[in-house]
Amino acid sequence: MRFANRLALILFVLVACVGCDQTTKSIAQSYLPRSEVWSFLEDTVRLQLAYNNGAFLSLGSSLPEFWQHALFSVCAGALLLGMFGYALFAKRIPPIGVFAIALFVAGGVSNLADRLAYGGYVIDFINLGIGPLRTGIFNVADIFITAGALVLFAHEFHRTRIDS
Q: Under a CB-based contact definition with an 8 Å cutoff, are residues 155 and 97 in contact?
């Protein structure tokens, strides 16, 4: 894949995903009351505003503020920058791999933007479940991160099966 095409793909995914995530978070903050849960599709989808100062499923939210900032802003930013550079410059990554890494980076960048803009927390507002089985509260950026990881995993699994 040519450098210009790779850069265009990464930038397109970044702009589209960060824009989508930040827009949905802005809408959630404008319309969802913090103390109220909105339920849809027979309680399969719940919308509830939450401020998460930890990572996935609030992991690390009980850490001291210094360590939260170090891990979730500084280290995460360095990791995202490294992944961006890898997707941009590693010549052996196929386009699907570049796309998957770009999804992962876009979700991470959008959550990092929240942390920097809101003093260390991320806006979450989506909860899915059936009966007592429920996810944690998450956001659209988390969907992009998960999708990127799943696409990368599926591609590697498929490639490994073909090679063997």
A: yes
pTM: 0.91
If one counts the domains in the chain, the total is: 1
Range of the domain at 27: 3-163
- Which residues carry out catalysis? 124, 142
Question: Encoding tokens for residue 67?
Answer: 């360590």
The answer to whether 46 touches 37, Cβ cutoff 8 Å, is yes
| Tens digit of each residue's pLDDT (9 = 90 or more) over 82-127 | 999 999 999 999 999 999 999 999 999 999 999 999 999 999 999 9
Residue reference for tokens 């073909």:
162
Virtual torsion, Cα 136, 142, 148, 152, nearest 10 deg? -30
